[in-house]
């Protein structure tokens, strides 16, 4: 095996400084596609298998009977027992058959039809957010794309999905942000603040469930609380945990797809010009943005039996990490993978997962949010441009942007 120089693949500071270490991942895809990564011995980081090719990421994702989401679920330190028990009640950390029943219950709320019904609300939210930025810039003020557009959009949409009243948005925003502070010291909350936010969001979700059970409405939450055709339903606990999962899984991901997509369009002005000339391209642009940005960089699984992958022997108990960001630049699958092309089609990217049982529940919703957002920007702020430094998130899990100042290009350009 050719040796590939060592880069800390899961060191958040690598990502903060320069984004995804693509050069290194490309070398791994070529020379060591299933690579035993030895972490920093000083940090006592345990080793894991880094899976970087598209075909292998798909294979791991589609074989939960070998690559479990439930066993040894943390990438590094195991959580405390009570935390672990709670996390294992979330479907993200379950395997079939437990996962299958839960997933089929919540799938009913996320079909293209159910999500399509939200379109007008998403359009109103985008119009308000982008309109406010336009007005601020018009008045000579400053705007930040993450703070003013990309962060509030998915949060407001989730509030809409939950049927939460508008006056509750701010507190739900605060709880979600506290929960997802992640590894970035600037955003990180204390463990106590995280616990408090989780408890408050949990209690809020319990209140929502109670209100809908007493007075059902024509909304997604009411549907999720009702038993499905086979009589399966979410227990109280499961519903509350699902609301928490939504606020974690649906927020930061979409936020960073929106801000990373905007940045890609700033860096490729000819692609923005193509979109301005042909709105029909927004549909393919959205998937290209998810491929290019890959908001969720990686996910971990644990082998629960001995197996072989990419010519390597993997032992039961080994951690296996799939790198979606690498799979999405795999030259075996994508022509010219390092070109950002808003018209790319087909685009079998793995930004929403490798197609197994955990494939992103919110993919239709994310596509809707992103396409309406970019349509609104093209209509309202066609001359938007970057006006300062982009600050990246200190995280190897979420490819994120914390701050991105924007302005309008003067009309004479
Ligand atoms: C799972 C990406 C938006 C809810 C996932 C997974 C990825 C992902 C990579 C794991 C797939 C796997 O392990 O095979 C993204 C990206 C998004 C996005 C890139 C935005 C561009 C959303 C939204 C929601 C959502 C808007 C809901 C409001 C979920 C849930 C899961 C999930 C609940 C767990 C599904 C399961 O375990 O069965 N997403 N996601 N996501 N996503 Fe998303």
Automatic annotation (TrEMBL):
SUPFAM superfamilies: Cytochrome P450. InterPro entries: Cyt_P450, Cyt_P450_B, Cyt_P450_sf. Belongs to the cytochrome P450 family. This is Cytochrome P450. It comes from Actinomadura rugatobispora.
């Amino acid at each position: 095996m050719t040796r590939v120089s060592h880069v800390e693949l899961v060191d958040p500071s690598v990502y903060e400084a320069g984004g995804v270490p693509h050069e290194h991942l490309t070398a791994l895809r070529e020379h060591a596609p299933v690579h035993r990564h030895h972490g920093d011995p000083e940090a006592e980081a345990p080793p894991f298998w880094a899976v970087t090719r598209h075909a292998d990421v798909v294979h791991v994702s589609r074989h939960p009977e070998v690559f479990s989401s439930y066993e040894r679920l943390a990438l590094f330190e195991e959580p405390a027992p009570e935390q672990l028990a709670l996390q294992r009640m979330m479907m993200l950390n379950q395997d079939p058959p437990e996962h299958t029943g839960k997933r089929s219950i919540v799938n009913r709320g996320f079909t293209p039809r159910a999500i399509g019904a939200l379109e007008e609300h998403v359009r109103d939210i985008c119009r308000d957010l982008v309109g406010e930025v336009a007005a601020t810039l018009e008045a000579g003020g400053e705007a930040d794309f993450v703070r003013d557009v990309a962060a509030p959009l998915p949060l407001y949409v989730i509030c809409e999905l939950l049927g939460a009243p508008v006056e509750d948005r701010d507190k739900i925003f605060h709880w979600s942000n506290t929960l997802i502070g992640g590894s970035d010291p600037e955003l990180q909350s204390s463990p106590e603040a995280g616990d408090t936010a989780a408890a408050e969001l949990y209690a809020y979700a319990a209140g929502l469930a109670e209100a809908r059970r007493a007075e059902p409405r024509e909304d997604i939450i009411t549907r999720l609380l009702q038993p499905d055709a086979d009589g399966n339903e979410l227990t109280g606990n499961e519903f509350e945990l699902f609301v928490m999962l939504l606020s974690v899984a649906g927020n930061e991901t979409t936020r960073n797809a929106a801000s990373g997509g905007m940045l890609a369009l700033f860096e490729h002005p000819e692609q923005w010009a193509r979109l301005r000339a042909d709105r029909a391209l927004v549909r393919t642009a959205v998937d290209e943005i998810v491929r290019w940005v890959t908001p969720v960089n990686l996910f971990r699984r644990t082998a629960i039996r001995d197996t072989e992958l990419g010519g390597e022997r993997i032992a039961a108990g080994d951690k296996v990490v799939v790198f979606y960001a690498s799979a999405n630049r795999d030259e075996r699958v994508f022509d010219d993978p390092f070109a950002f092309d808003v018209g790319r089609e087909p685009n079998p990217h793995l930004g929403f997962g490798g197609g197994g049982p955990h494939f992103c529940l919110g993919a239709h919703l994310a596509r809707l949010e992103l396409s309406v957002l970019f349509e609104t920007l093209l209509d309202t702020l066609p001359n938007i441009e970057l006006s300062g430094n982009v600050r990246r998130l200190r995280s190897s899990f979420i490819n994120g942007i914390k701050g991105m100042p924007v302005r309008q290009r003067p009309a004479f350009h």
